[in-house]
Amino acid sequence: MDKRSLLSLFNDDARKHIYLRIFRCLTPLLTVFGTVALDTTRTPFRTETRILGGAATFAAVSAGFFSKTAIVGVVGSDMPPEHLSALDSKGLDTRGIVTVQGGMTFHYDSSFDYDLSNRTTNKTELGVVAGFDPLIPEEYAKSDYVYLANNDPKQNIKILQHFDSPKLVVCDTIEFWINGARDDVVKMIGRTDGVVINDNEARLLCKEANLAKCAKKIISWGAKFVIIKKGEHGAILFTGDGLIFPAAAFFLDEIVDPTGAGDSFAGGFLGHIARRSRADFSTMKEAVIYGNVMGSFAVEDFGVRRLLGISKKDVEERYIKYRNLVQF
C-alpha cells in the first residue's frame, strides 16, 4: 500500500496529525528563549489588561509556522492555564516553560500615542524572570537555530552554554536592558551570529544617530549581520560583507496594537531560515520579507490573538501579495 492509500484510511484530523508529526521530524529544531509575559497595553482607543504576551511568545508562535519550534521561559502561578494551552494548540514544544508556584509572571505595562508610533513604558515588573536560572530539556540541546529574545542578557549568555553547536544564534534587546546592563548586552552580541533590534534601540545602544553606523558598530562587536527594524517603515538588513537589503513594511488599513511586531518579525525571519536550512544572502532577504509579513499579522489585534488565529495558508498568501506589491 502506498502513502496516499494509507493516508486515505484516516479522517482529516488524523491526516493532519500525521503530517504534523512528519513535519516535526524532518524540520530542524528552533529554540526560542525569552519572556513569556502578561501585558497591559493602553492605546487611545482601547486598553487590554494582563493579556498573553512576551518576546518569546510572539517569536515562537511566529516561528512555528515555518519550523519545529520550542520555547523556553519562566512564568508564575498567576499565568492562566488557557494561555499556555493556546501555545500548545499551535504545535509549539512548551516543555521548556517553567512555572514557579507562588511567583508572579513578567508584566509589561505600556501606552501608545494617538498614531500608535510611539510607546511609553509605564511599568516593568520582572517577577519570576529576576534571578531565573535557565535550563533546557535535553532534547533542545541539539537545536540548529536559537533565538535569544528580549530578556536579561546575562541569562541569554548563560543559556547558550546548554546548546551543543547551533548553526545560527540571533538575539534581540530592548531599552530596559540597554540602560541597565549595556556591557552585558554588548557581550551577548559577541556570542551571537545576528542581531534584530529596532531603530531607536540601535541608536541608544550604539550612541549613534545614523543607522548604517549603528549596524557597523554592532557588527564590530562580533555579529555577522544586523537587522534594524523601523516599525511601519519596514526593516533593513546589513551584513558583515557590506551587503544591504531594505524592505518596506506590508501596508495595512488598520493597526490595533504594535506590541510584539518586532518579535513576530524575528520569529518569521529565523523560522524561514530554519525551514530552508541555510542562511545565504538570498535566503535572508526572503526571511526579511516573511518577518515583515508576520509582524503585519501581529499588529492586527491585541497581544498574540491574531497570530493564534491565522493559518500557514494565510501567511503564504500575504507573502505572495507582498511580493506582488513591490514588483515594478
Summary tags:
328 residues; alpha/beta; UDP-N-acetylmuramoyl-L-alanine:D-glutamate ligase; 4-stranded mixed sheet; globular
Tell me what you see in this structure.
The protein has 328 residues and is of the alpha/beta class. The chain has one domain: UDP-N-acetylmuramoyl-L-alanine:D-glutamate ligase (3-Layer(aba) Sandwich). 41% of the residues lie in helices and 23% in strands. The strands form two sheets. It has a nine-stranded mixed β-sheet, with helices on both faces. A hairpin with a 6-residue loop joins strand 6 and strand 7 (119-125). Helix 9 (261-276) packs antiparallel against helix 10 and helix 10 crosses helix 12. It is globular. It starts with a helix and ends with a helix.
